[in-house]
Automatic annotation (TrEMBL):
Pfam families: DUF2063. Residues 6-90 form the Putative DNA-binding domain. It comes from Blastomonas natatoria. It comes from the Bacteria. This is Putative DNA-binding domain-containing protein.
């Protein structure tokens, strides 16, 4: 048997739920296989539990452990660090619990907050320099840690209740109007916020290189009151700057 075939067999063995023998491994080494099997799966399950603490709290021990087993069986580590292992766990939960969309939303929020914490630093804008900006042509640089997800559940309320350790968290609910959950890091603190679809569209336009003037025009074209749309755009920009969502203007 080639080394590649042996490695492939061993990886398949590690993905299985229960330890079994491998015909390609000599008899004298069979006893150690269970040790490798247990250590591998326990390490990955611990990594998931560390990142998805609030999801774990919502699911409970038994269901979370079951979800971990399913995820481990279909997702081998592909990075040099276990910090990357939880990527895609929300998709596993979406497949396991299609009638409970809040679970995938919670897992995405857990993961995105951790990624934001580990993300690159961003400068704060010099407010004094803003007086010289040509706002019609100004282009906004968005915080590189910003992540967005369209959600249909009250995931933000659920996550905060779990974070606060409440014994009576609210029930999962479907939103009457879909919203977008945003995650980013301000200074050293990961943050999250639910925003409306119009604001998300403005963020996407900014990330794609649209000027602030073009963003304002797009908002005005879809509003009944153009003056109100201009005021909304200005207030939105002020909040983005204050919250470090926008990290540079040029």
């Amino acid at each position: 048997m080639s080394l590649r075939a042996l490695q492939s067999d061993f990886c398949a063995f590690l993905r299985k739920d229960s330890a079994t023998t491998l015909a390609s491994v000599p008899t004298y080494a069979q006893r150690g296989l269970k040790v490798y099997h247990y250590a591998h799966r326990t390490t990955l399950a611990d990594a998931l539990a560390d990142v998805f603490e609030r999801t774990h709290g919502w699911l409970g021990d038994a269901r979370f452990a079951s979800a971990c087993r399913v995820h481990i069986a279909s997702h081998m580590p592909t990075s040099w660090t276990l910090a990357d292992y939880g990527r895609g766990f929300e998709q596993t939960l979406a497949l396991l619990y299609p009638d409970n969309p809040e679970l995938a939303d919670l897992a995405w929020l857990d993961w995105s907050l951790r990624e934001a914490f580990n993300g690159p630093d961003s400068p704060e804008i010099d407010l004094a320099a803003l007086t010289e900006i040509d706002w019609d042509r100004a282009r906004l640089s968005i915080n590189p840690t910003l992540a967005c997800r369209r959600v249909g559940t009250n995931v933000a309320l659920l996550w905060q209740a779990l974070e606060d350790g409440r014994s009576d968290p609210p029930e999962a609910q479907i939103l009457s109007t879909p919203a977008v959950l945003t995650v980013w890091r301000q200074a050293l603190m990961p943050r999250y916020q639910t925003i409306e679809l119009a604001e998300h569209a403005a963020l996407l336009a900014a990330k794609n290189g649209a000027s602030f003037g073009e963003i304002c025009q797009a908002m005005a074209s879809s509003a009944a009151d153009t003056d109100a749309a201009a005021a909304t755009a200005g207030a939105m920009l002020g909040r983005w700057i204050a919250e470090n969502v926008v990290v540079a203007i040029g």
